[in-house]
Amino acid sequence: MGCQDEIIVQEVCEIYDKISKLQSLKPSKDVNMLFTQLVLTCMPPNPIDVTKLCKRVQEMRSKLIRLCGEAEGLLESHFSTLLGSYEHPLDHINIFPYYSNYLKLSLLEFTILSKHCTQVPSRVAFIGSGPLPLTSIVLASLHLRTTSFHNYDIDPSANSKAVSLVSADPDLSNRMSFHTIDIMDVATDLRDYEVIFLAALVGMDKEEKARIIDHLVKYMAPGALLMLRSAHGARGFLYPIIDPCDLRGFEVLSVFHPTDEVINSVIIARKYSLPLHKLEQGLGPIILPSKCSEIQVFNPLNHGNMIEDLALEEQLT
After folding, report:
1. Domain of 70?
2. Which of 261, 275, 267 shows the shortest CA–CA distance to 240?
3. Cross-referenced Gene3D superfamilies, in alphabetical order (predicted)?
């Protein structure tokens, strides 16, 4: 581990120590300050592989990801309740402090999706939508204006808050539905979606995430697309990391690692049209396409040329 990596690990450990001693992770001056400090520490692009750090740091990272998830849920719940107090909640959605990040992330995901989807999907699922389903709201409002969104969350209170946000909007309330259920208990209904989004914090560690992905590939329709949020470099202290080469049963189409304030990496994969065991028969081991390791940098300052740049990249590959 290089000197710079040691500095980052030490800084993250010190912040974790302070966060772990907080009495509550609900939004407050101290909570906001510490998590802002953590994000700013992990945000700069860094080639560190956090999955290969020592056992002590791995244990700290696992606990930190769960604390980040809890804090994120409480933050979204707080602002969802606040927005729900307005007669027209979505008119005030920009009071959420990270709304601009969701605008950028949703544009990124829509642009990636447009490269690999031949037509506008009619039905999309978002797994882990939470009390403030900003991705679904932004995509439905700005990018996929005829698509139906089916939002899944295990928490009934989260869905209750989310419903109150869109109920006053005649268009979104007609195109959005919310299902309170563990996604591991959803089977045949998964075949109804052309695209499934998996939130970053659904599956808080590698093993749990793998079980969910295995469940999805079992029941998704052949040829359907899966969009996953991962993390890269030091950002892996904030969110679980998905190794694209672990997506058995999927063809990994593209991997994006943003370098700006959009923290999550984005992976898009397509379920194979044939079961993997049939693909492997007589062919030897399946080698994932070269795009498994493809990295495309998202430049938030270049929105106007992003689609053209990606189109050029597609031609080159």
Report:
1. 3-95
2. 267
3. Vaccinia Virus protein VP39
